[in-house]
Each structure stands twice: as structure tokens, then as C-alpha cells.
Amino acid sequence: FSRALATTWDITSAMNYFLATGNVITKSGLGLMQFTGTTVIAEKLNYWRYLSHFRCVHRGAFFAEMRTT
């Protein structure tokens, strides 16, 4: 068990990086269309300002860069 535990990938450092920067580090790709800008930083200084962080829906960098007519 200890050998299996030692060879596993450390998920905590990846989650810390994801929450701090919003960028995903993955070996498999996870089937995601974007790897940057996936987190919302919300500061809870005041309740209404905290809720205003979630008022807008962002579809992601993939849709912002997509060129369709």
C-alpha cells in the first residue's frame, strides 16, 4: 500500500495551482476545450459584492476565440 501511495500523483499541488491561477495541469487532457481561466476569484468583503461575482456567465476562452459567422 505504501508503494502505491508513493507512486500516485499529488493532487493537492495541482488543486492549489488550479485555484490560484485558474489554469489546469493535466496529463490526459480531461476532454476540456480550455485550460485557462476556469476559476472565479470571489472575495467575501460584503455579501452583495460576493454575489455579484456569480451574476455573469462566462462561456470560456474557447468561445471567445472561436470565429464563426
TrEMBL record:
Keyword Cell inner membrane: no
Protein's GO biological process: DNA-templated transcription
GO terms assigned for molecular function: DNA binding; DNA-directed RNA polymerase activity
UniProt-listed InterPro entries: RNA_pol_Rpb2_3
Domain (RNA polymerase Rpb2): residue spans on this chain: 41-69
Pfam entry (one): RNA_pol_Rpb2_3
Protein's name according to its UniProt entry: DNA-directed RNA polymerase
